[in-house]
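Exercise 7.
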Amino acid sequence: MGAIAGARSMTPLAAVSLAAKQGLLPRNNGAQAFLSHPVVVAGSLALAAGELAGDKMESAPDRIVVAGLAARLMTGAIAGAALAPRDERLVGGLLGAAAAVAASYVTFELRMRALRRYGQTASGVVEDALVVGSALLIVAVANDQEYPGVTENENGALRWG
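Solution. The predicted structure, written as tokens, is:
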């Protein structure tokens, strides 16, 4: 989920808030009570929707400016901690934060290449679809739910198709 924060800072927070509202987060880590609060759910969804829309504007700031990196670090850490069991929240948060910062630079470079080739809107819509789909998949897998088209082999690795 931290890597997703590198591409869209608010999507991970919205995803874990929705998961908390539906009772899909690990029950023993304490995040569910806060993240499922109606104000948090509504606020994170509004921020995520605004970010998805605003990203297509030419005036949108780069994701690697200090404020953008700070937001990604925070939401990556929150989402990582929220998806981890209670005794692994710190590790989950640190991994989420680190993945968010690293992915910010990787996804920035990929987006700039796509933008030059396909334009602002087309590259942004494709990135949005990848980000939202990935966030939903992570929440489903973290909760041991079935996800259409994804199976787990005998070694625990995910298989597509």
